Structures are given as structure tokens and as C-alpha cells.
Amino acid sequence: MGAQLKNSKLKAPVPPRWRQEVERILITDAQLARRVKSLAREIEKDFLGREMVVVSLLSGTVMFLADLIRHLNLPMRMDFMGVSSYGLGTESGDLVFTKELRLDVKGRDVLLVDDILDTGKTMTRVLAKLQLLEPRRIKTCVLLDKPAHRQFDIEADFVGFEIPDFFVVGYGLDFAERYRNLPFVGVLHPHVYKEAIKRVL
Ligand code: PRP
Questions:
Q1: Using CA positions, which residue lies closest to atom 10 of ligand 1?
Q2: I want to staple 110 with a disulfide (CB 3.0 to 4.6 A). Which of 64, 82, 138, 162 is the partner?
Q3: In the chain, how many H helices and how many E strands?
Q4: Which residues line ligand 1 (CB under 6 A)?
Q5: From atom 13 of ligand 1, which residue's Cα is the shortest distance away?
Q6: Could you tell me the pLDDT band of residue 70, with boundaries at 50, 70 and 90?
Q7: Catalytic pick among 115, 118, 145, 157
């Protein structure tokens, strides 16, 4: 299970540049750094020094992956799969594979990394696709677990944080490809996505 978010009274303020769009900071950069480091320790213990192939899903994992792997003291190779599930809104839409794996994972230990487990559709579909390649085993790791809308019977093996049902952006996570560069995980103001949805309807 992921770390629970404490209800801290000392809320980190949203930097002025982002106040119009980001309601509040849910996970600070310091909390992220601490948890990612401890997550790396958990993964190391599980892989017992065996070489792993890290399969990371584009594009939301960019920051998480970069921070996680620098704390993983294990031999590894790394590859990416392109998969996109969100349509224009905040609901999961159809799944599209935009980049296939290049490394051969047959007989290998795979660590599948994603930024967020929401309905579970992406992880379920990707796991099914990876299983066909006959790896020795696959372990899954997500930064955020948002169980509120789960539609598929799936849990990740390693979870950074379990979060409530908010639309979150930052630290790699986007809304319409924006906000990935925020160094924290923040809650998007509902007016941002309500206005965006109105524009496409
Ligand atoms: C997001 C996120 C996960 C997936 C989770 O991907 O990165 O991969 O949705 O949702 P699910 O559990 O409901 O399937 P998105 O399509 O937004 O692509 P991105 O990583 O490029 O942001």
C-alpha cells in the first residue's frame, strides 16, 4: 500500500504563477523526493540484485522515472511504451498504443512503471500485452494510486501515494499536455477543465 497523505495544517502555498490554475498542493516536492527514495529501497529488496528491464509508460512517468532510477542500485535496462488513455476531458477514453517496446523482455524481470493507477484500464491492457512477450515476472510500480474510479481488478505492487479523488497535475502528470513541469503534485482547479471541455463541445 502507498503512503497515506497526512492532513498537514501547514499547507504549502501554490507558487503565484500557478494560483489561477492549481487549487492546492497535494504532495510537495520534498514529500515526493522522500517517498520516491523509499520506494526505490522497497523495489531493490524485491529484485534481490537481479537485472531488471524497466518499462516506463510515456509520457506521465518522465519525472518520477528519472528520480526513481537514480536511487535504484541494481543493474537495469530501460525502455518505453507509448500509451494514451485520456481523451480531451478528465475521463479515461479509448486506449491507443503510440510506441512499442524495443527490448526483448523474454525471460527477464520487468518493472512496469506508470505515474497513476486510476480506472486500471491502462495497466491491465499493458500487462496483458507484456505477458505475451513471456517475461520471467512483471512487477508494477505507480507513483499515485487513485482507487475511487477503479473499473479493473488490479493493484500495483509498489505504490508511492494513495490519493483521494482529485484531478491531479504536476510531477509529470498533465491536463491536455500541460502542467507536467510542476515540481509538486497539485489539484487542478475544476474551472480549468470545465472551460476546456466547453471549448471542445
Ligand atoms: C494516464 C496515466 C496512466 C493512465 C491511468 O495516461 O499516465 O497511464 O492515464 O488511467 P487509467 O488507470 O484510467 O487507465 P494518459 O493517457 O493521460 O497519458 P500520459 O501518460 O501521456 O499523460
A1: 118
A2: 138
A3: 4, 10
A4: 57-60, 84-86, 92, 114-122, 174
A5: 119
A6: very high
A7: 118
Residue 46 known to be catalytic: no
25 SS3 class: strand
DSSP reduced 3-state for 149 = helix
Q: Which domains does the chain have, with CATH numbers?
A: 29-163 (3.40.50.2020)
- CB contact at 8 A, 161 and 35: yes
Question: Ligand 1 centroid vs 77 CA: distance in angstroms?
Answer: 23
Closest CA to 22 of 195, 177, 187: 187
Gap from CA of 94 to ligand 1 centroid (Å): 11
Atom of ligand 1 nearest to the CA of 177: 22
Q: What is the CA(61)–ligand 1 centre distance, in A?
A: 10
Closest ligand 1 atom, residue 122 Cα: 14
- Residues 5-34: what's their mean pLDDT? 91
Spatial separation of the C-alpha atoms in residues 20 and 109, rounded to whole Å: 44
C-alpha closest to that of 171 among 28, 11, 40: 28
Work out the mean pLDDT of the chain and round it to a whole number.
Answer: 93
Q: At what angle do helices 62-69 and 29-47 cross, to 10 degrees?
A: 60
pLDDT over 70 at 76, yes or no: yes
The yes-or-no verdict on residue 89 having pLDDT over 70 is: no
pTM, rounded to two decimals: 0.94
